[in-house]
Amino acid sequence: MIKGKAHVFGDDVNTDVIIPARYLNTFDPDVLGQHAMEGIDPDFSSKVRKGDVIVAGSNFGCGSSREHAPIAIKACGISAVVASSFARIFYRNAINIGLPALICENAGGIEQGDEVEIDMDSGTLRDVTGDRTYGFRPLPDLLLEILEDGGLLEHTIRKMRD
To answer: Which end of the chain has the smaller Cβ count within 10 Å, N or C?
Structure first.
């Protein structure tokens, strides 16, 4: 179960605002996390608490294929991104680094700061503040395994050891 505060964004949030290009000279998660979403909200990373969730509209993560974007989001403490749709490469990069990217087409009622809970097993997103429950597309077992292992690299290492 994921529990945290919702940070709400609209449609077409691109990788340039998720992590501005001036920070692409590092892969250090701590540095990237300090600048997550800086192109939209310069104070974003200081507002996030471990377990918080991004809730967004359509086409989240559009733009370049940089892995820096989901790394920055995860490193600042965000535990999942929920959107009505994702740019394909962002979605894949998020799963690869162990950040749940969940497609929920009707979560528009969630507001900034609402307390939310995500149950990956039941495929539900609960807005505790607004007392509403939304369904999201369940992830296939393989993607759940990758997320549980912390990302694709960790998953591959575990599989090679088994």
So the answer is: C
Pairing status of strand 80-83 against strand 101-103: parallel
DSSP symbol at 38: T
Helix, strand counts (H, E) of the chain: 7, 7
Residue 2: count of CB within 10 angstroms of its CB:
18
How much is the pTM?
A: 0.92
Q: How far apart are CA 41 and CA 20, in angstroms?
A: 11
Question: Which positions ≥6 away from 41 have C-beta within 8 Å?
Answer: 47
Rounded to whole angstroms, the Cα distance separating 56 from 13 reads: 8
Task: State the CATH number of the domain containing residue 81.
Answer: 3.20.19.10
| Domains: count for the chain | 1
pLDDT in tens, 68-118: 999 999 999 999 999 999 999 999 999 999 999 999 988 888 999 999 999
Are 150 and 158 in contact by the 8 Å Cβ rule? The answer is no
Which structural domain range is residue 36 located in? 2-161
Q: How far apart are CA 48 and CA 50, in angstroms?
A: 7
pLDDT digit string, tens, across residues 68-81: 999 999 999 999 99
